[in-house]
Backbone:
């Protein structure tokens, strides 16, 4: 079994300004090709710490993936630390220099002197092209440990792992030829992790060859199933059954049987059912529109969102009646119904969606505490109003819950209507 | 100086199913009380790895904070590993048992037999009450290293760090009376990292006692300065000069002298200058509204955003003329000026801001390639139109650049007007 370790570098991670999401991404991919990840580590931009950490890893692991510290600035120390730890010099790598030049040429940007620092690699290292940024990565063998140095920028790192590191590991260590890896994912919203765990507690005994994992991307949870083995037919059968069984246990909280995001799931549903949508957002403050328009091609179904924070805007732009606002308040089923009708009318969409609530941290009352949200859905033949409570007091968490909650209600209504 | 290390445990983190956000949270709090965090590590639910990691940390650090592995299940190994690593037995701690019983009584839940396992602590450990979950934490001194074991559930861990760990560290190690840590941050937009670095390349020689760091939170870069030492007066003087010098080098790209986000900076500027704002978003798809409304109290200055994706919505809702759209196209200075005027008019705000562009990945032409954005600003006495190009082809990156670019133009106009 190949032993793998992951090291992330940088003061911003070590001091906690940035949460390290790179290591999890890399661990998943290393796992998939049969490597056993035993440790993650993180050190700051400190030459001695970095060099000593690299020496330690090299005696324990067969594979090491190191992220960060490859940029042009003075606190980018990874190449120098690798050279120092293993007693070699840094030298200009012509291929790495070419990769940097190509990147700059592509964007008609001028290279600065410090950019060329990124092509100084430890003697004996081979560069990894970075087509998505300025810093090339490199591979450097230290004794029995093959070390992959990658930039810390997630977008660059992710592509380089998939396109260079994984193929190199498979070529260098040999394919685990007879091994099949199958995967299945479900996305769900509206259950805490502990309860998802409880509902699936018989999973291990029912499906002994499928490994269950969970990934919480607040407020959505993705249930991940992985089956690794040699008998493809029986693995396919078992993981299919496992997926079906899990979906049954989790019921209507599951919104995607393919592990997709809510906005991607809604996008394909709207296109398939030829529904167009107009949105009126109060408490979600543009987040619903932002999520929907993150999907390329969203102009086919997303026509308009009015972020109407003030009561005046709700009246003048969406046509909510002043009487409704006065009688029931801005956060009420009555108001969101009129907002949804207004959004549908002025956008000319077939469906209107509206939110009004109290995201916090202040603004709550006894009757309508922080976390209260009302969602309105306007369709050709009916207008619906809902009310929910989130247990959170924190503004951004509540905006996220409110937005996903509204999109999930919309999803269910469209499914029912079609 | 107190050296601190952080260890997170659990297969779900080590295998990448869950991103470790606990370590960043703990690092920030340890930093604040003057501890120097040198390493984070993570190991899976494996007795040998865990025990060996604990032994390594205990010889390097004065303080260790360990999360995870304290629950009732068989893969919760932290207490046993601590006992094993330091050659003591596990024993039932009456205070820990009481804390578990109190928690269950509070929620009228029945205790299961496996729950009492959580009260088995290494001999000599003192329990830390967990009022927010079932697993108590504990403090265990290993040689010179004081180890704090906490549950991995973020909400439980966070409260226990603030309410028990931080006070204990301060009491045990005494306030670090003679060391001062000073920090200064600048936020900027519109320069690549390499160029920022080049502009600041004399920093180290000019300010030898201030450490320079950089944090890229796309598309914003934060320049971080830290001065640690014993002579407060001279450090204050040096870091103030360093901040001033850096701001001069970076010129009008700097938008916050306090390292704030663009939306926080705009918020305080709008409040100070009593400007209210109405927005019309095409290519940014709600992101500007989302950013502005992430700030609590934004209803004081943010009145409305119309996310008008379609030309029809631009005409019917914002009052853009069909002739302008036909003559110049949706992505043009002329159209965004009319959009900005429309947003200002219908929202009743003192200022209107509008975006229209091509976020990609498709939809570009030779004349208006992917990455083109037009920004309109409407004020009482003038309406302005701008055009920019981003070098990126990726949709979400472009939405982010476009939104920050528009807010930065607005910021400059408001500063000029006031």
Residues:
């Amino acid at each position: 079994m190949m032993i793998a370790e992951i090291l992330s570098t940088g003061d911003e991670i070590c001091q906690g300004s940035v949460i390290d999401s790179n290591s999890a991404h890399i661990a998943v991919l290393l796992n998939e090709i049969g490597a056993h990840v035993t440790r993650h580590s993180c050190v700051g931009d400190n030459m001695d710490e970095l060099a000593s950490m690299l020496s330690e890893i090299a005696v324990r692991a067969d594979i090491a993936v190191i992220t960060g510290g490859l940029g042009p600035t003075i606190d980018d120390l990874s190449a120098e630390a690798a050279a120092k730890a293993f007693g070699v010099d840094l030298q200009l790598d012509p291929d790495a220099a070419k990769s940097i030049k190509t990147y700059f040429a592509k964007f008609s940007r001028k290279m600065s002197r410090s950019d060329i620092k990124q092509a100084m690699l430890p003697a004996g290292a081979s560069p990894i092209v970075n087509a998505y940024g300025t810093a090339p990565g490199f591979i450097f063998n230290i004794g029995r440990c093959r070390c992959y140095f990658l930039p810390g920028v997630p977008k660059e790192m992710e592509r380089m792992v998939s396109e260079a590191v994984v193929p190199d590991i498979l070529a260098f260590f040999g394919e685990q030829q007879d091994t099949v890896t199958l995967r299945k994912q479900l996305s769900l919203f509206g259950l805490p992790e502990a309860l998802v765990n409880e509902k699936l507690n018989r999973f291990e005994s029912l499906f002994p060859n499928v490994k269950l994992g969970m990934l919480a991307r607040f407020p959505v949870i993705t249930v991940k199933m992985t089956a690794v083995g040699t008998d493809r037919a029986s693995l396919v059968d078992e993981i299919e059954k496992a997926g079906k069984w899990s979906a049954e246990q989790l019921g209507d909280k599951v919104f995607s049987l393919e592990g997709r995001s809510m906005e991607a799931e809604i996008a394909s549903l709207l296109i398939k059912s030829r529904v167009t949508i107009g949105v009126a957002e109060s408490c979600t403050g543009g987040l619903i529109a932002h999520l929907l328009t993150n999907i390329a091609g969203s102009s086919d179904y997303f026509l308009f969102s009015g972020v109407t924070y003030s009561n005046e805007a709700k009246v003048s732009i969406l046509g909510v009646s002043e009487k409704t606002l006065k009688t029931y308040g801005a956060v009420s089923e009555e108001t969101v119904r009129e907002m949804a009708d207004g959004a549908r009318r002025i956008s000319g969409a077939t469906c209107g969606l509206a939110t009004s609530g109290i995201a916090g941290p202040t603004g709550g009352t006894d009757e309508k505490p922080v976390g209260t949200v009302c969602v309105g859905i306007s369709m050709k033949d009916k207008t619906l109003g809902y009310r929910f409570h989130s247990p959170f007091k924190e503004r951004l968490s509540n905006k996220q819950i409110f937005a996903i909650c509204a999109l999930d209600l919309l999803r269910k209504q469209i499914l029912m209507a079609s």
